[in-house]
Amino acid sequence: MACPKVRDMTRPPYPPARRAEIVDDLHGTSVPDPYRWLEDPDAPEVKEWLEAQGELLGQAGLAGRERFRGRVEELLKSGSIGAPTWRGDKHFFMRRTPEQEHAVLYVVDERGERALIDPMALDPSGLTTLDSWQPDKEGRLLAYQISVGGDEESQLHVLDIESGAVIEGPIDRCRYSPVAWLPGGESYYYVRRLAPDQVPEGEDQYHRRVYLHVLGTPADDDVMIFGEGLEKTNYYGVSVSRDGHWLTISASRGTAPRNDLWIADLESSPHEAPTLITVQEDVDAQTGLHFGRDGRLYVFTDRDAPRGRVCVTSPEAPGHENWRDLIPQDAEAVLSDFAILDELDDPIMLVGWTRHAIAEISVHRLSDGVRTGAVPTPGLGTIGGLSERPEGGHEAWFGYTDNTTPPTIQRYDARTGETTLWAASPGSVEVPPVRTEHVVYSSADGTEVHMLVISPVDSSGPRPTVLYGYGGFGISMAPGYSASILTWVEAGGVYAIAQLRGGGEQGEEWHRAGMLGAKQNVFDDLHAAAEHLIATGVTTSAQLAISGGSNGGLLVGAALTQRPELYAAVVCSAPLLDMIRYEQFGLGATWNVEYGSAEVAEEFGWLWSYSPYHHVREGVAYPATLFTVFASDTRVHPLHAWKMAAALQFATSSDRPILLRNETEAGHGARSVSKTVALAADQLAFLATHTGLAHES
After folding, report:
1. Which of 208, 264, 569, 609 has the fewest CB atoms within 10 Å of its CB?
2. Which segments constitute the Peptidase S9 prolyl oligopeptidase catalytic domain (predicted)?
3. How far apart are CA 94 and CA 80, in angstroms?
């Protein structure tokens, strides 16, 4: 009986959290859920508990918080710049200057440069974000979507570019909606959820449909084009070719790595009732289409090619049996993007690739795909937004960043073969020198995994280290400018980024090796990364922290319950942690194609084997853990972290703290710079305090 008394004397005085005797029987397994009462954010008991957690966080001695805050803020004064979108001689782009809280959308035309959408002008509180935007084909009108307070519930508006006047909107329920303008700018296709009173209770985040909207008419009168009777969790893509001839509609069940695809000839069928022709249906592959100015249909697909390929066919014969390889699958690199430059004697295709998440661009003859060269790039980093003028040309633009380079936009001229800087991030900052190594290590089953290790240039001996990972949804961990990483390394720490299975660094097979029943591979890859960093003298377990958000929050949640002795500290942000009930909250039902469903016996077994909340054990010395969650997060409900925090605070035998940072008026995605700085400062100070970095600086 002595041990519990000692534990109670040394650990922080956590807010009381009652343990309810709730046990579900699922497929013959008893599933306890003692903190289910924390699922109701409106309950007075929950509000009181959250307030007490905030007070506990405020009392935590986080060394160096103001120093970290100041340095992150300085490094974010680099600002940012986005790639241009062209409409004739007019182009649109995003830019954030050093003093701005949000990036602003600008247009450049014969009148010069002017701001079109400034989120701070719309809302000086900084809580409004610009979620997406799309000019019409002539560059006269702009559809844009905004949301408030981090809820990502986008409302769609239309703006007249010449006058700057908002001529229509808002149209609500447009979260994640593409906008596909028809020529002339009088109408567009878009995606909207059904009204809450038209769907079962609790399903108002689902049930999307594709509509045709005519400018100046009520949105509720819009004609439904597609989606009736299909899967409730479907996401839809919609686009219209530049000449208005072809409509494309895609459908994906949640975040599944596959889609169904149709096209319609808008010259032979009415816009409000297009005749859809199937390109692929019930096929386990992802495919997208581009209608070339040369009349060919370009097919970007991972069908029979997990690393991606580009095929060609005719729009009149879009079926798989007619596809012909233009850019075949590469043995190592993953195909990410392409652009066509046809204002040349011999038109070319630029093809973007990633090789272990490092980007490159090759040049190919458009006629037969033969490689003829490469596009010079500024370094070993990340390329994004490869684009050309819609009407053709000899120029392409792409974004570039790496670990020490704020975002830039590069211009490639196919006539000269040269790449030049087109636009840089507008701020001037002194970036600390760092050393980046690309290392390879073996996971538990012998699989080779790659990792980027960023350290001070004079690094030697074991140092406080943060290991970051994600490992899901085919998302790659690529190099990029990060004020938080640079601040940590400048202070004397090491930052490692593991390219775990479940990501997209090596194509779709790599993704599938870390999803559904293979999810444990992702956690094993992280543990192996930690062991490699320790074995090679980079750090020690007493100096090693792990960090992850969203699916990466699930990653570190599983890691701290599976190998608590391996890690000194954990930052777990916006996480999924109750994997038995995750489908019932936020957008959880759209992710069962990635994780599996507790309603299916076999899939329940996968989830039950690692669900972090259910693997907390009383009397274990858990690492210091900081949960950071956002009250307006409509993707991953904060209840996951609330329940896990309560469970760990009850169970841990360590005096290392379990803390909860619960932020209001913030969500899963975009946020103002000041909110970003405050969050980063708290996270870095926590990590420094519990890995010893604070004592070195």
Report:
1. 609
2. 481-692
3. 8
pLDDT digits (tens, 9 = 90+) for 74-107: 999 999 999 999 999 999 999 999 999 999 999 9
Asked if residue 398 lies in contact with residue 407, where contact means CB atoms within 8 angstroms, the answer is: no
Amino acid letter at 388?
E
Tell how far CA 605 is from the center of its chain. 27
Interatomic CA distance for residues 479 and 193, integer angstroms: 36
In one letter, which amino acid is 268?
S
Structure confidence by residue, pLDDT tens digits, 431-486: 999 999 999 999 999 999 999 999 999 878 899 999 999 999 999 999 999 999 99
Establish whether 668 is a catalytic residue.
Answer: yes
**Is 157 a known active-site residue?**
no
- The pLDDT of residue 460 is 84
Residue 50 carries which DSSP code?
H
Mapped onto helix, strand or coil, the DSSP state of residue 532 is helix
HSE, side-chain direction, 13 A CA sphere, residue 582: 33
Query: What tokens appear for 673 in the block?
Result: 């710079």
Q: Measure the CA dihedral 505/507/511/514, to 10°.
A: -70
* Integer Cα distance of 568 and 68 in angstroms: 20
Distance of CA 561 to the CA centre of its chain: 25
Are the CB atoms for 229 and 194 separated by under 8 Å? no
For residues 366 and 350, give the distance between their C-alpha atoms in angstroms, rounded to a whole number.
9
Q: Give pLDDT tens digits for 388-441.
A: 999 999 999 999 999 999 999 999 999 999 999 999 999 999 999 999 999 999
CB 248 within 8 A of CB 315: no
pLDDT of residue 206: 97
Cα separation, 476 vs 504, in Å, equals 5
Q: What is the pLDDT of residue 4?
A: 29
Rg over CA atoms, the chain: 26
CA-to-CA distance for 416 and 294, rounded, in angstroms?
23
pTM of the predicted model as reported, rounded to 2 decimal places = 0.95
Catalytic residue among 252, 668, 672, 690: 668
User: How many Å apart are CA 438 and CA 460, to the nearest integer?
Assistant: 17
Cβ contacts of 565 within 8 Å, gap of 6 or more: 541, 621
Per-residue pLDDT at 309 exceeds 90: yes
Query: 14 with 59: CB under 8 angstroms?
Result: no
pLDDT-based confidence at 7, cuts 50/70/90?
very low
Q: Is 498 helix (H, G, I), strand (E, B) or coil?
A: strand
| pLDDT at position 313 over 90 | yes
Whether the bond into 170 is cis, omega within 30 of 0: yes
- The strand ranges marked E within 205-254 are 208-214, 223-226, 234-240, 246-253
Residue 521 has pLDDT above 50, yes or no: yes
Q: Which amino acid is at 433?
A: P
Cβ-Cβ contacts under 8 Å for 462 (sequence gap 6 or more): 537, 538, 539, 540, 543
Whether residue 174 contacts residue 155, with contact meaning beta carbons closer than 8 Å, is answered with: yes
How many helices (DSSP H) and strands (DSSP E) are in the chain?
A: 12, 39
DSSP letter at 330?
P
For residue 256 the two structure tokens come to 């599944």
Instruction: Kindly state the average pLDDT of the residues 487-516.
Output: 98
Looking at residue 38, its amino acid is L
β-pairing, 465-468 vs 494-499, is: parallel
Spell out the alpha helix ranges (H) of 282-415.
none
What is the Cα 371 distance to its own chain's centre? Answer: 32
Q: Is 67 exposed, middle or buried (0-12, 13-18, 19+ CB in 10 A)?
A: middle
Tokens 């290590």 label which residue? 441
